Amino acid sequence: MSRIAATFAALKAANRKALIPFVTAGDPDPAATVPLMHALVAGGADILELGVPFSDPMADGPTIQRASERALKHGVGLKDVLAMVAEFRQTNGDTPVVLMGYANPIEAMGWDGFCASAKAAGMDGVLTVDYPPEESGEFAAKCAAAGLDNIYLLAPTTPAERVDAVARHARGFIYYVSLKGVTGAATLDLGEVAARLPAIRAATGLPVGVGFGIRDADTARQVGGIADAVVIGSRIVQEIEQSEPAARLDNVRNFVAGVRAALDRG
């Protein structure tokens, strides 16, 4: 059983929901990432989503775009991100880490090289925004062989046949994008999310996480009432961007702890 599957199984047994925070690797500088990962765990994160900085992050809004720009100014690339995961693994062997990014850096490294390096670093899952299920069968097979869960996005506009295709290929969990647009773009419509999830659950036995548009503890609590996991990205990246360096870790940990407490209240 993968770390992701084991985490969801333990949470289900405890009647708790997964909290999955996102940060961009290398933001605001390379030395900050591993301490931030540990701060997220200390705040109550169950799974970490680590973004690979990219020059054209098509699914990301201005906040995460700026995070990528800050990381890229330091020259942070995919190899550096994997090195950060390996450093994190020196003191944390339990918390799953999912890499979120785009196809170009993986293509540049090569599928075999990427899968081997990700496995060696201690990565658990991969969410590649621009690898649709129709075109990523071979890549998904290589990920599976390396013990990496291949995670896919579903959106409000996803037709039923694509939901079925994603369900056949996905491992780990399904990431449901709660709104039409980019990260941090708008406030989610909880009723619409609730209406869409039953069809997704009917197609897959995997846990379903919901992200995009979740900016506070109360919204996270409401989403946790209908989903298996809550994904928060832009709001945490904003906290990193606006915090003074000396207060950054405490601010991030405290924000995540507030969301964790809200989720646990149900």
Give the topology:
Blueprint (H helix, E strand, L loop, with lengths): L2 H11 L4 E7 L8 H11 L4 E4 L10 H12 L4 H12 L7 E5 L1 H7 L1 H11 L3 E4 L8 H9 L3 E6 L5 H10 L4 E4 L12 H14 L4 E4 L5 H8 L4 E4 L1 H9 L5 H18 L1
Parallel strand pairs: 1-2, 1-8, 2-3, 3-4, 4-5, 5-6, 6-7, 7-8
- The side-by-side strand order for the widest beta sheet comes to 1-2-3-4-5-6-7-8
Q: Which overall shape is indicated by the principal axes computed on the Cα atoms? A: globular
Give the H and E element order. HEHEHHEHHEHEHEHEHEHH
Structural class: alpha/beta
Q: Bin the helical content.
A: 40-55%
Rounded average pLDDT: 92
Low-pLDDT ranges:
181-185
CATH architecture identity: Alpha-Beta Barrel
Q: What value does the Rg take, in angstroms?
A: 17 Å
Number of discrete domains: 1
Number of helices: 12
Biggest β-sheet strands, sense, barrel: 8 strands, parallel, barrel
Cα(first) to Cα(last) distance is 28 Å
Strand tally = 8
CATH class wording: Alpha Beta
CATH topology: TIM Barrel
Instruction: Let me know the CATH homologous superfamily.
Output: Aldolase class I
Strand content: 5-15%
Question: Tags for this entry?
Answer:
single chain; 8-stranded parallel β-barrel; 12 helices; globular; TIM Barrel; 266 residues; alpha/beta
What do you see in this structure?
The protein has helices at residues 3-13, 33-43, 62-73, 78-89, 103-109, 111-121, 137-145, 160-169, 190-203, 217-224, 234-242, 248-265; strands at residues 18-24, 48-51, 97-101, 125-128, 149-154, 174-177, 208-211, 229-232. It is an alpha/beta fold and 266 residues long. It has one domain (3-265): TIM Barrel (Alpha-Beta Barrel). An 8-stranded parallel β-barrel has the order 1-2-3-4-5-6-7-8, surrounded by 9 helices. Helix 10 (217-224) runs parallel beside helix 12. The longest helix has 18 residues, at 248-265. Mean pLDDT is 92; it is low at 181-185.
